[in-house]
Amino acid sequence: MNLKTIAMTAAVLSPLVLAAPWVSAEEKHAHEHEHEHRQHGTHVHGVAALNIALEGDEVHVELDSPAANIVGFEHAPSSEADHAALDQAVARLKDGDALFRFNAEAGCKMEMAKVSSALLAAEHGEHEGHKEGDHGHAEKGDHDHERHAAHGHDEHEKHAGETHSDIDAAYHFECAQPGKLSSLTVELFEAFPATGEIEVQYVIENRQGAVELTPSEHVVNF
């Protein structure tokens, strides 16, 4: 199950409103736009989204968070401190067993973690540019193109001249007893204190639901 599948699965949890036949095309368009806005969420500092789906003995977890929640900034890393903060954040995000603790009876262990962000693409482009900068104009042009592509990837997140960058993380857990999966303790608040709320949607076998987590209430019961 890939990230798009998880997102689509979670989307079915959102309330659906059927437009009546006599509703005007303009009103229908407004409703569709509003539903799409709810489905994809908004970029709000302090708020993150978490999707959880169980498929067989595999649990897929997807985290979508503003970069400000994770590293404290949303611009391309431009200093040693920025690079260090980003590296530290990625290392913490990849420690899925520490961030997500399923109830012990289910026996779930992380098998894979992947972190992606336009900030990482920009950092990679900058490092490659320094490494290859003395190899001629052709190489420099290639890396300029890579940086331009990374910039384009994040272009849709611009609003009113301000860049809003996200950090996404995807996890794959395997559970020895998936039938006993009943809860998940989320430790993201302790690892990333700038996160104040996490909007969770889950599909666990025939159980599905949504819940909002906070630093004081950070356990999802399925």
Structure in words:
Strand 1 and strand 2 form a beta hairpin. The protein is 38% helix and 30% strand. The protein starts with a helix and ends with a strand. With 222 residues, the chain is α+β, with helices and mostly antiparallel strands. The strands form three sheets. It has a six-stranded mixed beta sheet with strand order 4-7-2-1-9-10. Strands 3-8-11 form a three-stranded antiparallel beta sheet. The chain has a two-stranded antiparallel sheet with strand order 5-6. It has one domain. The protein is built from eight helices and eleven strands. The relative contact order is 0.20. The radius of gyration is 20 Å and the shape is globular.
pLDDT average, as an integer? 76
Portion of residues within helices: 25-40%
Distance between the termini: 20 Å
Order of helices and strands: HHEEHHHEEHHEEEEHEEE
Structural class: alpha+beta
Radius of gyration: 20 Å
Instruction: Compute the number of helices.
Output: 8
Give a short account of the largest sheet: 6 strands, mixed
Sequence of strands across the biggest β-sheet: 4-7-2-1-9-10
Query: What is the count of β-strands?
Result: 11
Question: Given the C-alpha coordinates, what overall shape results?
Answer: globular
SSE topology:
Layout: H1 3-11, H2 25-40, E1 47-55, E2 58-66, H3 67-71, H4 80-93, H5 96-99, E3 100-102, E4 108-117, H6 118-132, H7 137-153, E5 158-159, E6 162-163, E7 166-175, E8 183-186, H8 188-191, E9 197-204, E10 207-213, E11 219-221
Parallel strand pairs: 1-9
Antiparallel strand pairs: 1-2, 2-7, 3-8, 4-7, 5-6, 8-11, 9-10
Helix pairs in contact: 6-7
